[in-house]
């Protein structure tokens, strides 16, 4: 049931933009324009009583006068007009509404928000928002939000922050990973994390679910659904309000009850959720989940041209519970034949500043299938040309995850990083960030084992 | 004494590149070319017995045949030739040597390295390296290393990793901050952290000292000097090898004795050193020190257009010991007059997604001189045009540090971030990174109070 409703929203065949405007300064113009710019193929109906045509489309004075069926209504009108218009939408059998308009509980208009809640109860219409930054599904070009993000990919986002919703999409775009379904949830008077996670769980384009959460309405249902979905797909959560000061700030942002952090922590663990501690770690982690298979366990070989990077990686790995097994004797023999004498055969394996792409290739060819290691962190700490090609080649030979780091590489660096992105290979700017991301893959892999 | 020697190296009036080459594939070509490309104005003598001219400069068969005085010799020759040539340099009264050449203790050639040590003892010549990535002083264009970094600024670097030496410089360049004196120290058989910190401490272009350290030879002298210098300038240290696995990796990288981490930690605290936990935090912190004054204490006002960003900032602030005092009544009155009704007057102060540059300006004008706050974190979580201009204006009105965050801002974001950089205003990509950097300013400010 839930999923059907949400597919009417995210996979709407027709959209009405209520409050579409001809004035480029207005949000009602921008939302309509973004939907068109993103290449949405469904029917689009601008609703505006004072216009005949907006951005080349015929405009309608009200939703009632739209000729065809409407799956989704996007609201960009002043708050006071929202309830009556929502009721009109429900009558017209519109399935879902994304209410971008603000001016409800977040500014003290509790009554107005309660009115919306009653309408939702009385009718079949379902709502994302109000007071939100909208939704995006680039697989259909349904960009009912801002900025315009066109790259379709495997990440789905449920965020109580519009800014994080935008930032995560922009980073995924820059990395050429792309997103599947994204929602900025605002005051979330109706559709909550459990609904979105359930829908994303069934969505075949979604490989990983990213969540920024301040609170949930129905904790029990959330745990139940998260637990079910996390068996199939990783759910990565950044929780705002984990400290006392943070929790107070949550209360005035989305009026969520942040609750005691220990309770959330326990619920997340129970549900198989991967909890992260910063926005950056959230993105770095979903990037790894998007592009890589899961490691069998926590055993990693670090290969580097930069001794310092190997060392800080080893430090971070130990702190995050990864294991760095020594290089087994049989591998040492083969490595000795291929590597210069001065390379010390340890883990981290430091190929030194003299390393070049072929040396990485030779090394990886020897170690990649060995059972001692279930993942690899490969650090290019010098201007090494051909780095991305080597990792691409190796990624085809193994299902083990390979995380790359590229830093300190001068002009060549930007070219190589662009290549990594084009080839859908995860590359990180510092060693610690790659190790943290890997440790979250390991956590999830471990969790999956505990439940089977 | 030390300082004089180091000024002969970093501020050399004449440089010999021993092993300069005409072959663009060789490091001996690249180093010479980088020195010329960086615009070095002193005398440059390529040394190569097989060439008359390299890159338009007259070449000399040996250091003995160079006509003028030579302050600095940069070595890019095979290890086995280094000792005899170093002796020749000493005889010729060359003051310092940067030995980029590898092939010493790091590959097991302990004897060869010991030979260098004896020469250093017997003569007056002082050495950076061997097995290092060189030095850079963009204030003079003395780029005896790679990549070429020309932006001169307030950061000095002492790094046992060549890659970190390069990466930090590149980031400082991208941010238009620039560096003062940088050294990649390699095996550091002679010049150690204490020497560099002492010299950087006296260098008037240096405002902050960044250190990546795996170990020190003379801990007592290090503490003594660091303690002295940290009274005047912040020293920010990332220590590699803080875990057991990391420490083992250190042993094979630079053969430093990593020692027990608690001992380093205590020594750092005693010395007023700001210890950081990742390469990213190292850079974020020196960036803040470079561009800002110190806060009087830990009291910060967070101003944001993004509720979520305010909340994760508050969380991070509490974890890092910052204090977020409530907005005092007298300010609330003035703010009420300027801000929309729906803005809740709390700390973090959430101007909401409707915020625009003038709203930030009005807000900052009211709060900036109030004694309740000694620092500000200003978050632009939307495409806010004019953000950098507002912060620039405010930075001129107050000596309190203002750290900005810009994220989720679509196309406008890159333009604004470039403006922040041009105006020398620190801007961070996520809220947590800004808060961490601020907390390190606070730690240093607090330390300075304990010693006066």
Topology (SSEs and partners):
The structure is a homodimer of 452-residue chains.
Chain A: H1 2-10, E1 14-18, H2 27-37, E2 43-47, E3 53-54, E4 57-58, E5 72-75, H3 82-91, E6 96-99, H4 110-122, E7 126-128, E8 134-137, E9 142-145, E10 152-159, H5 162-174, E11 179-184, H6 193-202, E12 208-213, H7 219-229, E13 235-239, H8 244-253, H9 261-271, E14 274-276, H10 279-291, E15 300-304, H11 307-319, H12 329-338, E16 349-350, H13 357-367, E17 375-380, H14 387-397, E18 402-406, H15 410-422, E19 427-428, H16 431-450
Parallel strand pairs in A: 1-2, 1-5, 5-6, 6-7, 10-11, 10-12, 12-13, 13-14, 15-16, 15-17, 17-18, 18-19
Antiparallel strand pairs in A: 3-4, 8-9, 8-11
Helix pairs in contact in A: 1-6, 3-4, 6-7, 7-9, 10-16, 11-16, 12-13, 13-14, 14-15
Précis, in short:
In chain A, 42% of the residues lie in helices and 18% in strands. By secondary structure, chain A is α/β, with parallel strands linked by helices.
Task: Describe, in plain words, how this protein is organized in 3D.
Two copies of one chain form a homodimer. Chain A is of the alpha/beta class and 452 residues long. Chain A has three domains: 133 residues, NAD(P)-binding Rossmann-like Domain (Rossmann fold), CATH 3.40.50; 141 residues, Rossmann fold; 158 residues, Succinyl-CoA synthetase domains (Rossmann fold, 3-Layer(aba) Sandwich). Chain A contains 16 helices and 19 strands. In chain A, the strands form four sheets. Chain A has a seven-stranded mixed sheet, sandwiched between helices. A five-stranded parallel sheet of chain A has the order 2-1-5-6-7, sandwiched between helices. In chain A, α3 runs parallel beside α4, α7 packs parallel to α9 and α11 packs parallel to α16. The longest helix of chain A is centred in the C-terminal third of the chain and has 20 residues. Chain A is elongated, with a radius of gyration of 25 Å. Chain A starts with a helix and ends with a helix. The model of chain A has no long low-confidence stretch (mean pLDDT 95). At the A-B interface, α5, α8, α11, α15 and α16 of A face α5, α8, α11, α15 and α16 of B.
């Amino acid at each position: 049931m839930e999923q059907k409703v949400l597919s009417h929203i995210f996979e709407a065949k027709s959209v009405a933009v209520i409050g579409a405007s001809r004035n480029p300064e207005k949000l009602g113009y921008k939302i309509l324009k973004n939907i068109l710019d993103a290449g949405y193929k469904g029917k689009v109906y601008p609703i505006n009583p004072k216009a005949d045509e907006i951005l080349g489309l015929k405009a309608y004075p009200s939703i009632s006068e739209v000729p065809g069926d409407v799956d989704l209504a996007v609201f960009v009108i002043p708050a006071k007009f929202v309830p009556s218009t929502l009721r009109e939408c429900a009558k017209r059998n519109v399935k879902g509404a994304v209410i971008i308009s603000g001016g409800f509980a977040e500014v003290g208009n509790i009554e107005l928000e309660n009115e919306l809640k009653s309408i939702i109860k009385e009718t079949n219409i379902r709502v994302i928002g109000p007071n939100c930054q909208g939704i995006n599904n680039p697989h259909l070009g349904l960009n009912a939000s801002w900025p315009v993000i066109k790259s379709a990919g495997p990440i789905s986002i449920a965020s109580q922050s519009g800014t994080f919703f935008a930032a995560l999409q922009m980073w995924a775009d820059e990395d050429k990973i792309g997103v599947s379904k994204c929602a900025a949830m605002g005051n979330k008077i109706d559709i909550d994390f459990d609904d979105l996670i359930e829908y994303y769980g069934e969505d075949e384009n979604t490989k990983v679910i990213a969540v920024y959460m301040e609170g949930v309405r129905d904790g029990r249902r959330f745990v139940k659904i998260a637990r079910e979905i996390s068996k199939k797909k990783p759910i990565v959560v950044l929780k705002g309000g984990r400290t006392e000061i943070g929790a107070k700030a949550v209360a005035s942002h989305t009026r969520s009850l942040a609750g005691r952090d220990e309770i959330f922590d326990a619920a997340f663990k129970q549900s198989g959720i991967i909890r992260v501690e910063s926005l950056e770690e959230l993105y770095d982690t979903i990037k790894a989940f998007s592009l890589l298979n899961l490691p069998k366990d926590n055993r990693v070989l670090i290969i580097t041209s930069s001794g310092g990077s190997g060392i800080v990686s080893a430090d971070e790995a130990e702190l995050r519970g990864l294991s760095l097994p020594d290089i087994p004797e049989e591998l040492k023999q083969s490595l000795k034949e291929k590597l210069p004498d001065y390379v010390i055969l340890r883990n981290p394996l430091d190929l030194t500043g003299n390393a070049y792409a072929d040396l990485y290739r030779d090394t990886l060819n020897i170690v990649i299938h060995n059972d001692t290691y279930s993942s690899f962190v490969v650090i290019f700490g010098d201007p090494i040309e051909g780095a991305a090609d080597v990792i691409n080649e190796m990624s085809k030979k193994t299902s083990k995850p390979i995380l790359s780091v590229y830093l300190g590489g001068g002009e060549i660096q930007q070219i190589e990083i662009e290549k990594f992105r084009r080839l859908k290979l995860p590359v990180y700017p510092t060693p610690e960030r790659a190790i943290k991301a890997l440790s979250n893959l390991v956590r999830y892999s471990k969790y999956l084992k505990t439940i089977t």
